[in-house]
Amino acid sequence: MKSLLNLLLLLPLLAVLSFAAAPASAGCAPLELAQKKLADEYGEETIWVGIQPNEHQLIIMGEPGGGTFTVILLRPDGIACGIAVGTSWATLEVPAPEPPVPGEEG
Question: Source organism's superkingdom (predicted)?
Answer without folding.
Answer: Bacteria
